[in-house]
Amino acid sequence: MAALAVAVTLATITFVGGIPFLLGAAVLVAFSFSDSVTLSPLYSMYGEAIAGAVVIRAFGASSKFMRNMLRCVDTYIFQVAVERSKEYTDIVREKPEYVEPRPPTSWPLKGEIKCEGLLIRYAPDLPDVLHNLSFDIKPGEKVGVLGRTGSGKSTLALSFFRFVEPTEGRILIDGLDISKIGLTDLRSKLTIIPQDPTILSGTLRSTLDVFHEYDDKEIYEALRRVHLIPAEDAAEEENDAANANVFRNLDSNISEGGENLSAGEKQLLCMARAILKRTKVLVMDEVRVFILFYYYEQRCLILTSARQATASVDYATDELIGKTIRHEFAESTILTIAHRLRTIIDYDRVGLDVSIVTTVAHRHPQVILLDQGSIAEFDKPARLLSNPNSRFYSLCKATGKNEFAMLKKMAGV
């Protein structure tokens, strides 16, 4: 029995422990062999490269190899330059700066806008961004445009500047087709205030008066109206060099891009430019909600675009700008592009594009609802909010219970 027990023990050790051990050893040997086979070319190449480097250096041929390498690099760069030059020759030129007959110097006088069958795409092989868009904006109306990202809000604003040309349709301002007007004549009549304004380096004077068209008194008055300086005599402000307010001195240095200014101050400077320029069409992009609330007063058309309410301007600045707008831009026609429903809930008309394009009248508010670039609803905001089946109602309700109640209150429902 003892011999049998010993035999069983040896057999168990052999089959249970020995065979797996042997298999593991075999696998380890196989991996080691594979590793050596894989790395041997690298070791061989490394050794050959070291030996070659020694030979090259011994014969002084390193400079020759360097020159050949630089020639290859230069050839590649030249080929890229030729390709880029070819691309430049294929770029479609902008339309002429001036087209005869030129519009009257007083144009636009009323701020009436008509959009007829507007269809816009960014390239012939790309889908349409705006589809057969038609609407009328009468002088003094307040028009809001609201929509999700990619809905065409910015495209609509850019189309007024002809940064994108319509594939079909046209835009008329005071009866003139803007496609028949030179770009300089058209864009000189428009002013845009983006969320991130373009500020060039130089003095405060050159920032506000790029073409040296206004005297210091007018510039100081514009700064007062946007509340960048208090209502004091211009002479005192100009001579008070010790004052921390850089806007008191027109020779104050402005860094490239306005880096020494806050985002709100840059927007206010753009507002001061608009006051100086007295253009009939003002486009505002990405502004705060409280600013938009007060964009009711301008003697010309205001186009406002605000995709997101950001912290560019604080609440106090919003109120100051609102006062400026009410005073400086009276009897205006306003087009507002915004992401906040509060921005346009009390407008004359409202329109939705992919989300909304809102058109609102100060005295007779109405709403234009666009679906996929086409008008789906056109009525007063209050009436649409009273209709649970309207898309505008659904959009407002989706903001939440408290916000929905506030929107209805603002709309007078």
From TrEMBL:
Domain ABC transporter: 113-397
GO molecular function: ATP binding; ATP hydrolysis activity; ATPase-coupled transmembrane transporter activity
One Gene Ontology CC term in the entry: plasma membrane
InterPro entries named among the record's database cross-references: AAA+_ATPase, ABC1_TM_sf, ABC_transporter-like_ATP-bd, ABC_transporter-like_CS, ABC_transporter_C-like, P-loop_NTPase
Membrane-spanning segments: 42-60
Keyword Iron: no
Bilayer topology: Multi-pass membrane protein
Subcellular location(s) of the protein: Cell membrane
Keywords: ATP-binding, Cell membrane, Glycoprotein, Membrane, Nucleotide-binding, Repeat, Transmembrane, Transmembrane helix, Transport
Superkingdom classification of source: Eukaryota
Pfam families documented for this protein: ABC_tran
Designated name of the protein: ABC transporter domain-containing protein
Naturally occurring in which organism (per UniProt): Hermanssonia centrifuga
